[in-house]
Amino acid sequence: MLCRVGSVGRCATNLSPALSCVASRQKHTLPDLPYDYGALEPHISAEIMQLHHSKHHATYVNNLNVAEEKYQEALAKGDVTAQIALQPALKFNGGGNINHSIFWTNLSPNGGGEPQGKLMEAIKRDFGSFEKMKEKLAAVSVGVQGSGWGWLGFNKESGRLNIIACPNQDPLQGTTGLTPLLGIDVWEHAYYLQYKNVRPDYVKAIWNVVNWENVAERFQAAKK
Fold first, then answer.
1. For residue 196, what are the CA distances in angstroms to 48, 172, 185, 189, 190?
2. What domains are there in the chain, each with its CATH number?
3. Average pLDDT in the 65-69 region?
């Protein structure tokens, strides 16, 4: 009997036919930060970074693994109702893992300043100037109602840059089709310990640690 889920699978002959194909998958793990927790100070405190990464992001990773395991069980049983019921957990925790994995690399203790080359050319073409792009992304991020993200993304169909907000942990590409280049996390856990309820101050400060080299690399990859 051939068993295939994606490109990897194994067959357990001692199970009932409905459970005979069990997908083998590699569990998601919390990515290491490319810098120390205190490296982004004074703009983002070490306490925030430690909690944000080792607690909040870790929770998304753990819950994603649990949801995927339950989903694989539902697939094996042919339980469509359970598969549908698990979609919110997969979207929320999967999005949380995707978003934060991008976010950490979007930041750098050597960040700030302005992008160069093709990325800067695209920003000027699509927004008029670098400052206008910053103003628009800041306004969209600050304006998120409740929790969510502000994004600079690339539209492959139009070949242009777009700015958009996503609620909660909705992943940009999975919900809008835009390729994520730069994300600003405006969940309160990203800033409240340092900036309290003054979200605009946090968004203003984050420009000092934006890793434009990483954003430019994502832009070049998105155009291929």
1. 12, 26, 15, 10, 10
2. 44-104 (1.10.287.990), 115-221 (3.55.40.20)
3. 97
